[in-house]
Amino acid sequence: MAISQRFCTNHPERPAIGICVMTRKPICGECSTRYEGVNYSREGLKLLQRQRASAKPRKRKLLVPLLAWVVSPALLYLMYLGYMTTADALMRLLHGES
Amino acid sequence: MDFSEKNAGDLGSLADAGGPCIAPLDAAAEYLRRRMDRVLPLYVLAMAPHAVVAVLLIDAIVAERRSNAETYCIFLVIATLWRWVWLARLQQNVQADLSARQRGPFWKRTASILMVRLFSNFAITWGSLAAGVPAFYGLYVGTFAAPLLLESDEPTITRVGQSLSWIQNSGKRLFRVSIAMTAITILLTAAIFLGQAALAGTVLPSLLGVDGADLNVTIDSWAWRMRLFYLIFLVIDAFWTVAGVFLYYDSQSRRLATDLRVRLQGMMEVQP
Q: In A, which residues are within 8 Å of B61 by CB distance?
């Protein structure tokens, strides 16, 4: 690929500061819009908008959050158990078996 | 000086600019230096209950009071949940500064952040008994939880999946970061213990003429040593909390190819 890719696609005289995540074109600061932590060019934003508009509304998955809420008390207990095991080990280390 | 307006560009670009693996750590240290006033109050709020319970637990361990230790371990679980909530708030402030944007809604994502932290904590503690890999992923998913979930409204499971792919992609780099953090911790621990020994053994008796006998009784005790270890944990934890946001953007930009340096390197490699 040509070295000219270091420069903005729309402004060849300006150095590029990033790559549009949709169009994969190098873009300068003026052409770049940061959205959700990612660089987009103007065309890239339009593509994203079109993609999102055409996307069907997703069905909300309930199983995973439900499972997470059910498992979390067990994880809290394991956390307590972890602290207690460490405290026990330290007591044994400092005072020997008793 | 308003950091978000004047300096966010500098640090934001540093976080995205690739370079050595410790570049995000450097940026985090610089952020801490400039914005300690923004970090410290929230960090104290997050850690105050945790520190109180930890000191009580240390006393119970040293005095071998097992029933007290059991009670304090329950309090420590509650204090840890409190700590996670306020550290997430602290990370949200850093994230807002870096992206030069207003803070978004926090409380509606708090339960998800806690859930991710809980699972990652499980991976770090119990997962590490099986192998080092779950602990590694758990450490970084837990560290990234707040910036990850506060950046987008996508479902938690989708975001966690994305973050795992970023961590996988930057695996070597993040592993080197872990090594660097371990080295910093060891150096800090050695410096504190050597400094303390020099103070009690040489400076106080020879230069100031103070009898260090009572002091030696204190610093030779396990209660004192464990408190010092906790103090070192606090310093490293405060730094890691801030560095986590920088590492998050670093890993994200590498995976999504928004890091120009890496992209250009790739282009040059395929050039005939």
A: 87, 90-91, 94
Q: Which tokens belong to A28?
A: 């300068």
pLDDT digits (tens, 9 = 90+) for B224-259: 999 999 999 999 999 999 999 999 988 887 777 666
Indicate the Cα dihedral angle A70, A73, A75, A79, nearest 10°: 170
A79 Cβ under 8 Å from any chain B Cβ:
yes
* Confidence band, pLDDT 50/70/90 cuts, at residue B83: very high
List the domain range (segments joined by +) for residue A86: 63-95
Q: Could you tell me if A46 and A88 lie in one domain?
A: no
Query: Do residue A46 and residue A74 come from a single domain?
Result: no
Backbone angles phi, psi at A34, to 5 degrees: -90, 120
- Are B122 and A21 in contact (CB < 8 Å)? no
A17 to chain B, minimum CA–CA distance in Å?
7
Both A69 and A35 in one domain: the answer is no
Q: Do A50 and A21 share a structural domain? A: yes
